[in-house]
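Continuing from yesterday's entry. The apo prediction looked reasonable, so today I'm repeating it with pyridoxal-5'-phosphate included to see how the binding region is handled. Same sequence as before; SMILES copied from the compound registry.
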Amino acid sequence: MLQLSAALARIRPSPTVAITGRALELKAAGRDIIALSAGEPDFDTPEHIRAAGMAAISEGRTRYTPVDGIPELKRAIVAKFARENGLAYGVDQITVGTGGKQVIFSALLATLDPGDEVLIPAPYWVSYPDIVRLAGATPVILPTTVENGFRLTPGALAGAITERTKWLILNSPGNPTGAAYARDEIAALAQVLLAHPQVLVMADDIYEHLVYDGFPFTTPAQVEPALKARTLTVNGVSKAYAMTGWRIGYGAGPADLIRAMAVIQSQSTSNPSSIGQWAALAALEGPQDFLPGFRAAFARRRDLVVKALNAIPGIRCPVPQGAFYVYPGISALIGRTSAGGRRIDSDEDFVTALLEETGVAVVFGAAFGLSPHFRISYAASDELLHEACARIGDFCARLH
Ligand SMILES: Cc1ncc(COP(=O)(O)O)c(C=O)c1O
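Holo prediction written out below.
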């Protein structure tokens, strides 16, 4: 029998991927499935970006590149941070990886040892705690509440920092709640961090461009310049530019951290895809005029889903500021039984029964560390969202 590693035993497969897989299985078996479980835009990559990728192929830009990115893309990322975030970086402070995920992975692997602690507000993106565990360190989960808008408070942060704390991970707008931090909220957290110079800050800004109702996006290194020297700001083209499959993410931070991350990359992927990098360059340097259209579509769908879910007795759905997720609470439905005879003792039971009995695939809250909730990704057509919410309403009405 195959002996697997102790490192593997510390992590689990992504629940988001598992549920999407089950939804695909049911679909292949002929069931009418609406999958609202995956975290990606339903739009195509804009035409000029696809053209840049095709040009890279036809012009032969298909060889190994420098480990953490071609200089052209790094310069475009420097310009992006200056233009959009008022942050000045040199190219030696920029890294490009195979998705934002690899940037996070390299940073954590390059800095964590057993015994180190990483503060992660919950609900969290499923990968943070598992990457920390893979690195042999300890995720310290800081629960947030609906009442606080799923945002970490300065008091909770201050109470969680120990001499072992290595990182705080802040994701705004966040997956799975869509909650975003306002400038004064980031400033209040920064005040706490200033008293603990050993704590690094990972700002995961991957949903930066997906904010609604004029919400002003800000990021920790911009709000508190004194934090910049110990902040890794992570971003990428996956979400805003509908480029999930191209696998390009980037980060900006202190040059010694960036160099250490390149060592990890040099022994894992060697470099992010050359073609993806040239396409990402076109994304960052090219016209941004499609973004308001993406934002408007997402904002409309957010409103549609929030309204439909809040009309269902037993479901409470807060209005998120950004990303393309809602994270409704279902505490009033726990303990009930579905029309198909399934007992709902947890949010996992809820999503399983919902998928099996109505064909709507969503992700249970326990996967993100805060129950009882579920996550809907509303990156789908208005028609599908209407139909999904109608099925969820019908399912809930038949609980007894
Ligand atoms: C919060 C968050 N960070 C990072 C990522 C990584 O995205 P990618 O690796 O596609 O750039 C995701 C993707 O789901 C995410 O939701």
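Comparison notes:
- The longest strand covers residues 165-171.
- The pocket of pyridoxal-5'-phosphate is lined by residues 39, 99-101, 125, 171, 175, 204, 206, 236, 238, 244, 249 (CB under 6 Å).
Will overlay with the apo model tomorrow.
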